[in-house]
Amino acid sequence: MPHLTYSIDDGLAMLVLNNPPQNRIDPQMATEFAQALEAIGRSSARAVLVRSEGPDFSFGGDVVDWPDADVRGLRTLFERYMQVFNQLERLPLPVIAAVHGLCFGGGLELAFRADNALLEEATAFARKTAKGPTRAYAAHKALLRRRTRLLPLPRLRW
User: Which of 2, 45, 54, 80 has the highest local Cβ count within 10 Å?
Assistant: First the structure.
C-alpha cells in the first residue's frame, strides 16, 4: 500500500500523505515522495498542495526502529529525508501545505519547506527533544513566519 499518493488535475499537483494512523515518514514514503516530485517537476502543474489523510498532518519520522539503528544508518536515513525535503523546497512552483491536527518533527520540517501553509484552527506544532515533546513556539514559530504565511481556516475540507 502506498504511503504517499499524488495526482495532477487542472494544473494543481496534490501530494497526499497516507500512512495511518499518524502519517509517519518512513523510507517508503520518502521514496514515493521523491518519485512524485520528479513527476510533478516534469508535468504541466502550476502549483502543489501537500495534505494528509486522517486526523493529523504528520508525526514526523517513523521512530520505531531508530533505537536499534546504528549512527551511520540513522545519518543516512536523515540525509535521505532532507534530500526529499530539499527537493520539495526547490520545486519551481508555489507549494502550499494544508496542515491540520498534530504536526511534529519531520512533519514540521515538511510544513517549513512549503511556500505557504493553510492551518486548521486547532493545529498544534511540536518538536521532540531528549526530554520529550515540547511545544514549538519560539524558534519554530519564527521559522514558520519566515517561510510561510499562516492562513487559519476554521475547517479544511476536501
Answer: 45
> Over the stretch 23-37, which tens digit does the pLDDT of each residue have?
999 999 999 999 999
Alpha helices in the chain (DSSP H): 27-42, 71-89, 105-112, 138-147
Q: Which amino acid is at 67?
A: P
Q: What is the pLDDT of residue 158?
A: 45
Which pLDDT tens digit goes with each residue over 90-118? 999 999 999 999 998 889 889 989 988 88
Q: Which CATH superfamily hosts domain 4-153?
A: 2-enoyl-CoA Hydratase; Chain A, domain 1 (3.90.226.10)
- pTM (two decimals): 0.81
Between CA 7 and CA 100 the distance in angstroms is 20
* CA–CA separation, 45 and 48 (whole Å): 7
Q: What are the sequence ranges of the domains in the chain?
A: 4-153
Beta carbons of 60 and 128 less than 8 angstroms apart: yes
What 8-state DSSP symbol labels residue 6? E
Rounded to whole angstroms, the Cα distance separating 27 from 22 reads 15
Buried b (16+ CB within 10 A) or exposed e, 3-38: bbebebeeeebbbbbbbeebbbbbeebbebbbebbe
